[in-house]
Structure formats: C-alpha cells, structure tokens
Amino acid sequence: MDEAGAERRTRRGGGGAARRAERTATRTEFARFITRNVPDFQILNAEALEIIEANAETLLAEIGVNFVDNPDALKLWKDAGADIDGERVRLPRGLARSLCATAPATYVQHARNSERNVEIGGRNLVLAPVYGPPFVRDLAGGRRYATIEDFRNFVKLGQMTKWLHHSGGTVCEPTDIAVNKRHLDMLHAHMTLSDKPYMGSVTLPERAADSVEMSRILFGPDFVDRNTVMTSLININSPLTFDSVMMGALEVYARAGQACIVSPFIVGGAMAPVTVAGTLTQVLAEVMAGVAYAQLVRPGAPVIAGAFVTSIDMNSGAPTFGTPEAAQITLGAGQLMRRLNLPYRSAGAFCGSKLPDAQAAYETANTLNIGLLSGVNFMLHACGWLEGGLVSSYEKYVMDADQLGILHRLAQGIDMSENGQAMDAIREVGPGGHFLGCAHTQANFKDAFWRSGILDYKPFETWDEEGARDTATLAAIRVERMLAEYQAPPIDPGTAEALADYVARKKAAVPDSFLT
Fold this sequence. Notes:
CATH class of the largest domain: Alpha Beta
Enzyme class: transferase
GO biological process, one term: methylation
Number of strands: 19
Strand content: 5-15%
GO molecular function: methyltransferase activity
Distance between the termini: 50 Å
Family: Belongs to the trimethylamine methyltransferase family.
Protein name: Methyltransferase
Largest sheet: 6 strands, mixed
Radius of gyration: 24 Å
CATH topology of the largest domain: TIM Barrel
CATH superfamily of the largest domain: Trimethylamine methyltransferase-like
C-alpha cells in the first residue's frame, strides 16, 4: 500500500489511530518570525572591536573604495565631503559611520497577507530560502538546469513551509526564460503563489524599477510610497568595489523607500585576507561605505548590513562551508553591525556537498546554529542550498526547513515559569518512580519536545519493513505531498489581472535575450 493509501486507512480508524493521523497529517501552518530570548555570543572583546573599527576607518580614508561607471555616485560622495580620485572614493574618518546613523535600526516589511508581515532588526530573526542557483536537483531527475516550473515549485514549497517567514527572491534561475524577462515571471510567481514577503530584482536598475511598479500594482501606489514591501540583495564586488549595476538597483530601491541588504561577497583568501581580523576589517569598511551611500541617496532608507563569508580550499580553490573561521567571522560581524545599530544579515544552510548527505548536514548545522548565536536578523539561504550555491535541492529544501524549527525552539530560551520548574512533577513522582504517567507530563507531553517532521524515529524492524528509507528519500516523499496539497493563497481578481497584464506587456515590448 502506498503512503497516501495508508494515510487514508489510518484516518478511518478511531482512538489512537485517529490521534496519530491527526498528529502526522500535513497542515499549512505559519510560524511568526523568531524573537530571540537568548543572548548573542560575544567572540570579540572591547579592545578587538575598537581595533577592527579603527582599521576599517583607516582603510576607507587611506585606501578607499571604487564606485565604477557611476558619475552620479561620485558627485554625491564629493558633495558629502569625500575625496574623489578618478573612480576611487576616500572617506574621511567618521563620515561613513555618521551617514549610517540615519538608517533605521528596525523596519517592517509588509506582505500582501498582513499576518505574514516581518519585523527586521532588534532581537528578531527572519528566515528566507536559497537564492541564485542556476541548477536544481531532486532524486527523480538528478542535477539539471532550473526552469520556471522549478521556480514556481520552490515558491509553493516556501508558502507551505511553517518555519520560513519569507518567500525570498531568485530561489533558482529559470534558464528557460530569457534573461531580460525572467525577473517578471519570478516576481509574478512570488506575488501570486505566495502571500509571504518577497525580494525584488537587482540584475539591472530597470528590473528593480519593474519590481517597484509590480509592487505598486499588488499593494497600491500609496501603500508602497509609505511602506517597505521589498527587501532586496545588493552584493558588493569585493574587494572594495561597488559596480554600477548593483548600485543602480540600490538607488532605485532607496529612492522608493524599499529595503536593501548591502552585503560583501567574501571568499576568504581570494576576495579578502586569510585572517579573521583582516576579513572583518574589510567587511566592516565595505558595509559602512555601502550603507552610507544608500543614505546619501535617501536618508532613512531601510538597509540591512550583510556579511556573506566563506573560506577557500587552498588545494582546489573551491569555497568551503561550515568552517570555524567562517563561524568566527559571522559572530564577529554580528557584534560590529550591532555597534552600527543596523539589522544584520548572515549565515544560512550553507554546504559544499553535491548531495543532501552527511557532509551537507554537518556543514549546514554548523552555519544555521552560528547564525542564531551571532544575532542575525535576516537569514537568506536558510533552506535548499547545495553544492556551494550552484544548486537548489528539493530534498534539502524540506530537510533544512524542518531543521529551522530547532532555531525557533532554541531561541525561546529556558522556561522558568512555575510550569517550567516542574516542582509539582518531582513531588508527585518522588524517589524511584517515573514521570511518564504523572499529571505534569500528561499536561505538557504534546509540546514538551521539538519533533522533526522528516527524520525517522521508528524501531529498526519498522524502518526496515517500510523500505529502509534514508532521509533524502523521506524528504522526496514530503516534497511530493506538499506540492500535491498546495493551495494558492487568495488574491483579488482585479489585482491578479493587472499583474498578468503588466508582465505580458513588458515581455512583448522587447525581443528575448539570453545574454543580459
């Protein structure tokens, strides 16, 4: 009997069978964004923080950063008091930090379903899925180029996933759609297949402008003018280079009052020094320059200070994940960004493995847990990342998403209420007894322990009889069931029609290009 048939039979039963079916049935549940009740891990002492901050100011003042192919940016910097030499911008000590002070410490990103709104910054942690891979992988089809169908499937999975708070952005690159048009289809999918918050396009300023216009259709122009409805990723071309494409997208979003993640893209040893302190110095300098520029464009524009950091294998040149050095940088950067009073983006379900295997699990667990401890406020790539970011994996998506439930539970801290202290249970049981039947256990057993929705806890004999399925196989079954049970969230028919019309008109206006 297949899984669906077995489930139908179980639901017809009564008593314990019915209760077990109720506990294991798939439901579309939504968890609120995490508010941490646990302290952040402080890896740097006060002296180390002051040294890194002083070195970052020296870097900006003496070495400077490049703003390439962007004369308007150079003028803004000159008017603000920076020294301009060609495309090199040198910032007097304290200038960048003073400009960063106008960025909000927290902001709300609105979703079309207001129950899914997220508050980014402070003690909060918002989880978003993988971003950017050109390939996808599943057990049935193996590794292949991603399509728009894959993209829509991942958006549906995100909508169905309890522990994800955000629909994300480029959850995979739909390579069957022209490069100059795919951003329209991707945004349309996020806006119609999910009612969670989403990210806009950043691959050209014009595509960022399309993102703003489509958001104005979805939310109404007045609402978008007054509120943040997008948080989009702006990568710095490390080391110390701000290219015109990314800065052009940032300018569009900042002027529209929409949020940007200003994030260096660091591969330690290649795009930053091999040492932790040296990398932290570069990260801080790049972040301060990028956030400061957003404030030059529009003071008060919401910005997240990002740090995407990994190390490099010195034998092969491949990026490595889940390493102690990356953990140290993630923790240290969290302290530095909090001293800037800015929301912080870092960490994720990072791994270099080609498959959702033990390597993937070890590396992912390391980075997810460090993300929680480092005080991250926005975690991109929280589920689905495989093969160093080249692949969005269906199975790993749901495996990672399942484990995000652990972050929610850990962040709650320890319950020290009267119920949490459990003195009544200890008195009732006394020496030599057991707690299985006591009143306290009966009152709390349903919620006492976090339980995975995928991992197998059955006895060996039962597991063996059911086919000795590994975690990836169980995850594939879950993917299939989630997609089969997916239901699109309701959307106003007039809004849906207007979005579809905008996409159709924009795509018809230009020929396909698969190059840019």
